[in-house]
Amino acid sequence: MSSSIKDVHPPRTNENVFLFIPNLIGYTRIILASLSLYYMPWHPKVCVSLYCISCLLDAVDGNAARYFNQCSRFGAVLDMVTDRCTTTCLLCFLSLKYPQWTILFQFLISLDFSSHYMHMYSSMVSGSSSHKKISEKQNFFLRMYYTNNIVLFIMCAGNELFFVLLYVLRFNGPISGFWWMSLIVTGVICFAKQFVNVIQIVNASKTLANTDLEDRAKAIAEKKN
Asked: Residues 176-221: pLDDT tens digits?
C-alpha cells in the first residue's frame, strides 16, 4: 500500500514556488503595470516611468530564474500573461485616443494573444520543457527570436516603445525630427514583431496538425491490432 502511494505521489521539496525570486519580480511587474494604468489617462510622465520599469523587469526575471535555479512553469506562464495583459491594456487606451485606428489595435491584440497561446500550447503538446526551446527543424526567424536574448530584448523593447511613443504623442504638441526617427525605428521593430507572431501561429498550427495525424495513426493501428 505504501509503495503504491509513493508511485502516485512523487517526492516534493519544501520550497514555495510562489515565493521564488523571479516570481516575486513578476508580482512587482504586475503592481507597477497596474499603477501605470491608473495614471495613464492623466499623468503621462508617471505612467511611462512605471510602465517602462515594469517592462524592463521582464528582462530581469528570466535571468534571476536561471541564476537562482528557480525556473518554473508557473513563472513562465506568469511572465507571458503579464506581458500580454500589459500590452493589451495600453493598446485599449490607444484605441480610445486614436479611434480611426481601433480596428488595427484590435487586430494586434488578437494576433498577440492567439499567437502566444497557440505557441505555448503546441510546445506543451509536443513535450517541450519550455516554449522558448525551438528545434533546428523549425522556422529560422522563430528560433532566432527565442534563442538569441539580444534579438528577443530588442524586439520586445522596440515593440513596447513604439506603443509608448504613440501614447506620449497624444499629450505633446508638434514633434521634432528625433521623435519622428524614433517612431520610424520602433515602428519597423513593431512590424517585425508582428511578423514573428504570424510565424508563431503558422508553426504552432503545423505542430498541432502533425500531432493530430500521429494520434489518429496510433488509434487506427490500435484498432487493427
From this structure: 889 899 999 999 999 999 999 999 999 999 999 999 999 999 999 9
Question: What is the CB neighbour count within 10 angstroms for residue 178?
Answer: 8
First to last CA, the chain: 34
Check: CB of residue 83 under 8 Å from CB of residue 58.
Answer: yes
Cell triple for residue 146?
527565442
Residues written for the chain: 225
Grid cell listed for 117: 497561446
> Which candidate, 163, 158, 150, places its Cα nearest to that of 92?
163
Beta strands (DSSP E) in 76-177 are: none
User: Residue 117: how many CA atoms within 13 Å on its side-chain side?
Assistant: 8
| The three grid cell numbers given for residue 77, joined into one nine-digit string | 506562464
Cβ atoms of 200 and 142 within 8 Å: the answer is yes
Catalytic annotation, residues: 83
pLDDT tens digit sequence for 86-105: 999 999 999 999 999 999 99
The region, left, alpha or beta by phi > 0 then psi within -120 to 50, assigned to residue 39 is: alpha
CA distances from 136 to 16, 90, 140, 204 (A): 35, 35, 8, 15
Distance of CA 69 to the CA centre of its chain: 21
Given a contact cutoff of 8 angstroms between Cβ atoms, the answer to whether 55 and 86 are in contact is yes
CA–CA gap between residue 146 and residue 139 (Å, rounded)? 11
